[in-house]
Please model this.
Amino acid sequence: MGKSSLVEHTLTQPDSILVAIDLRGLDSVGDFIDRLLLRLSTTLEAHRLLSKHLPEPLKEALSFISEINVSLNGILSVGAKAKPKASTVIRAMDAIERASRWRPLAVFFDEFQEIIENLEDKDSRHLLGVLRAEIQRHAHVSYLFAGSARSSMFELFTSERSHFYQSATILDVGPIPQLDMENFLREQFARGSRNLNVDTLKAIFALAGDSPNDQQQLAYHLWTQSTPGRLGQDDLKRAFSALLAEVSRRGELILESATPAQRRILFAIAIRENEETSTDSFIRFAGFKNNSSVGAALRPFLKGNNAILEKRGSRVRFRERFLKLWLLLQVVTIPSLFPAGRPDIGKAEHGLLLPYLSDATD
Model:
């Protein structure tokens, strides 16, 4: 299971209540309040005692939520109101504190880094400042923060400029051990009378890398593109093609809306992802004059809805492996897209594509 499933599986216990708030795709402070209150209210409703006499703290928390939000056809919404003020965020957080007087709460913010990646800097700092001030007052609430963008999450809790500096214990959840994942995939495919041999399993991990999400995404397409029996390279090739066709819709939109400089940086990182972007060799390879121009081209892809890249120390890498592989394929099949450095498809990591790209590389 992934990090979100791990938290929900571990904290779903009778002696406390888990309020899981997914911030994926967050677009405003109002949206944050909306999600928090909706998840809190639905969770409390699901856990309230089956009697007509509600515990006073729970009754107080539920009535307090209704005071903050307006119910339209059963959907809680603050989006149509004026820009939320700090007092609105405080009142929303106060609803959590009131509910915790009835029973201890565990509040889980998933994809917490979306606050700094998707909101304007002023809005994100405002929201984080209010959250930090309120959270430290909550004696009966445990808070967990998770995110898939490691660099942004580390910055939130380790940067001295951040409101959440040193405010949490950091637990780095690494990839699922390959042997465990191999056994899991083999067992799941066997339930459908499909036999995954050693070579096919190795190819899945070579293509998908160490991300459990990417591994299962490719495995899903292998399942849909195969029939019961022994699965081999032809089945995996169909699965990989189907997956890249799915990725291509987003990839094409990204390239169409990108400037020439932004397209160059995407192709350059896809080809040389393990190289530091600030080196002279990378700057020349990507077709830029200096490091500042590289930074300007990178900036739109590190935050917001097009956050497809992330910093790992002095390097930049793709958050989605199959988007990177799709970009590599574009350069292989259409060298004019990035004439400065067509990847050598027969070497290093790019060689893993070779068995699945025979039509493109003929």
